[in-house]
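Everyone, study these two lines:
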Amino acid sequence: RTDAPTMSVEVLRLLLSLAAEYDWRVGSLDIKAAYLQASGFNREIFLRPPKEEADSVHLWQFDKPAYGLGDSGRLWFLTSFRALEAHNLQPCPYDKTVFKSKASDLFVTTQVDNFIFTGTDKAMNEFAAYMGKCFQLSEPKYDNFTVYGTVFGRDEAGIHINQRAKVLELMEFH
């Protein structure tokens, strides 16, 4: 299989609803070069080096999944799935992108190499620290981030959603 489940807009709405209901922060983690951090790559793929690096005799061999290979997304998903389960997060039986902590108030969803999460401050901080030990990631973002071209913000008045940039992008495209 080469597919990797991704978060739906409905799941994102559910997560934001939980955050609003319980007055929780919302966090976002971005994994750097996620596919290169995946495990389970067990096939031989060779490529010719770029001309500026090439010698006529040698080929380069992949030893990690890479963007553009059909099974890379799936391998990354399985790697991240194992890491989430090891942190005591249980996948939802109805949507494999949704996880709930067995030990705390923490909900996580995955969107390829991004994790959106909400819960108590303690649970969120522990999750971000754990993921930082598992993978190379960008600095966690809390309460202000972009997903699907939509800007999400949270302040004392509530959760705000702004799709202006995405709408303008779509209007330019058409």
Q: What stands out?
A: The chain has four helices and eleven strands. Residues 10 and 16 are 10 Å apart (CA to CA). The first strand starts at residue 25 and ends at 30.
